[in-house]
Amino acid sequence: MTQTLVPASMDTAPRGAYFSFREPLAFRGEGFVPTAEEPFAYRFYDKNRLVLGRRMEDQLRFAACYWHSFVGDGTDPFGDASFLRPWHGAGDPMAQALHKADVAFDLFRLIGTPFFTFHDRDVAPEGATLRESNERLRRIEAVFERKMDQTGVKLLWGTANLFSNRRYMAGAATNPDPDVFAYAAAQVKNVLEMTHRLGGHNYVLWGGREGYETLLNTDLKRELAQLGRFLNLVVEHKHKIGFKGQILIEPKPAEPTKHQYDHDVATVYGFLKANGLETEVKLNLEQNHALLAGHNFEHEIALASALGIFGSIDMNRGDEMLGWDTDQFPNNLPQVALTLYEVLKAGGIGQGGLNFDAKLRRQSIDPDDLVWAHASAMDLCARALLVAEKMVQDGALQRHVQTRYQGWDSPRGRAILQGECSLETLARDVEAEGLEPQPRSSQQERLEHLVNGYI
Ligand code: XLS
Ligand code: NI
Ligand code: NI
């Protein structure tokens, strides 16, 4: 039915290749030597290699994101567009959207990402009314259906952009005006349904404007209640339409608003609990957001896993010297290895994936830079996964942790946790036994040395 919405010729018209790479990048192993004909091949990303019993492709579930790679134009607060993509600037916006889709799926084919992610406004231009915006989106959806069918690329998640348009400047769900809440709800309904029809594995909510600048104009208590209601509506609708994907919140402490309500894992867990949603909603964690919240990525993953709400990852990297979301492609092997070690300890990435929510630097203006950035990041993650596999298989780290806590398996440890002790009985026992705890080394340096050995 949707096939008739866009004539096939519109999205298959030859436009000339955008990238100088023509064939999908191959896996050639660690001995690969680049040549002029083949400047890049995967040295570690061997998608069929088994890692702890699962294909590497299924352990990593890479996704390329639409916004940074095809919408981003290199602007920064002080500079105009530097990328000058042919689908940017003046021109028929729908024709540009179709051109963009062609290039996007060509990139996915070249680098071999099994998934992609998008916001509604990334893929189709906003219309004069929500109805018109939705119609445009529907036309792109038909194009996506066909391209996904042809290439086998799947949708990791969809999301609604509830932050760019000025109507959202004071928030979407947390806006003082219920009309804005209603508009945001209508937008999310549409994108959630689109994500469902496209077989998306997750749906993400990142609350860019769900926060505030100053308490002088803000009723914080009301805004939190509004946000809770909004999330309940999303979960209700998910069940109503039979969407089996995960609903994911993406925590971030600040930027664009100063105080964002979805600050970090701990904060979001409290929010979910308060709204009875801790079994319905999980988290999409981003390296750069963890850093901005004063945590490392491993902490956020481990905490989400301990609380039963780990869902997916936005794989990027922040600059530790800058206090904003620089969204760089990952390239630090030990850092990514420790991240993936936590993912493996959490039981794997599950229905989530590793989404490259990462952007080229403003001066990386060549189309091929998109290929290099993604492919290098994929190979780096693959290499890091192999390091993490060694950490798991060797087991020395895990054994150390087990030994460190083994006292809790003693009769006293068990009795405490099972609620069989009170302050009184504990005090009595300590005195009666003349108990004096014996400190033990936690051996951090030895463990750090072990980690370097795996790398
Ligand atoms: C912004 C967020 C955003 C989400 C999707 O900092 O990372 O890109 O991933 O809305
Ligand atoms: Ni993100
Ligand atoms: Ni981000």
Automatic annotation (TrEMBL):
GO annotation, cellular component aspect: cytoplasm
InterPro entries: Xyl_isomerase-like_sf, Xylose_isom_bac, Xylose_isomerase
Cofactor: Mg(2+)
A biological process from GO: D-xylose metabolic process
Gene Ontology molecular function: any one: magnesium ion binding
Known EC number: 5.3.1.5
Location of this chain's protein in the cell: Cytoplasm
Predominant location: cytoplasm
Reaction catalysis annotation: alpha-D-xylose = alpha-D-xylulofuranose
Binding site for Mg(2+) 2: E286, H289, D325, D327
Active site: H119, D122
Cofactor details (free text): Binds 2 magnesium ions per subunit.
Protein name: Xylose isomerase
Source organism of this protein record: Hydrogenophaga taeniospiralis CCUG 15921
The organism's taxonomic lineage, starting at the top: Bacteria, Pseudomonadati, Pseudomonadota, Betaproteobacteria, Burkholderiales
Name of the coding gene: xylA
